[in-house]
Design a protein that fits this description.
With about 160 residues, the protein is mostly helical. It is about 75% helix and about 0% strand. Helix 1 runs antiparallel to helix 2, helix 4 runs antiparallel to helix 5 and helix 5 packs antiparallel against helix 6.
Length: about 160
């Protein structure tokens, strides 16, 4: 098992343990039945456990298939695109900084659209209409779900 596979396995193990710890701590939250303040922590805990298990399974498949892999594939798998990481961190910082002023619906749509552009593969034509449509619909669905489904107020900003 080379370093990449070991790191993938360790990442899956850490994610699984963190998810289980988070889920264990969530069980101590007071429940009022139905959807309450503990609903989202439960969902996040189950997502973390599921993602950790999926990461472990992917690392196992990677280790099994390593006999067919070549050194070129390992080098490519280890290359990290720091520019994309820095752009994503910058977008998150801008999102958090402007969320209170601009509001959740507009900032979320702008963030999602910009994140789609950052994560798009280079050399492929960008479909601005599709990215914009998905960003607006997703932001609207999230806002309506939290506002009317969970009865939680999100910053309306310029719209409020």
């Amino acid at each position: 098992m080379n370093d990449t596979k070991k790191r993938e396995f360790a990442l899956g193990l850490v994610m699984l343990c963190a998810g289980l710890a988070y889920l264990f701590l969530t069980f101590d939250l007071p429940r009022k039945g139905g959807i309450d303040a503990s609903f989202v922590p439960y969902v996040l805990g189950f997502f973390m456990v599921t993602l950790g298990a999926m990461q472990l399974a992917a690392a196992r498949r990677m280790a099994v298939a390593s006999g067919a892999g070549s050194a070129t594939n390992d080098v490519e798998a280890e290359r990290v695109d720091y520019t994309t990481v820095l752009r994503t961190v910058g977008l998150i910082v801008a999102y958090v900084a402007l969320l209170g002023y601009v509001g959740f619906p507009i900032m979320t749509a702008l963030y999602l659209y910009a994140q789609f552009l950052v994560l798009s593969p280079t050399g492929r034509k960008v479909n601005h209409v599709t990215y914009g449509g998905i960003a607006v619909v997703a932001a609207a669905l999230i806002y309506v779900t939290f506002r009317f489904g969970f009865d939680l107020l999100l910053p309306a900003g310029l719209l409020g």
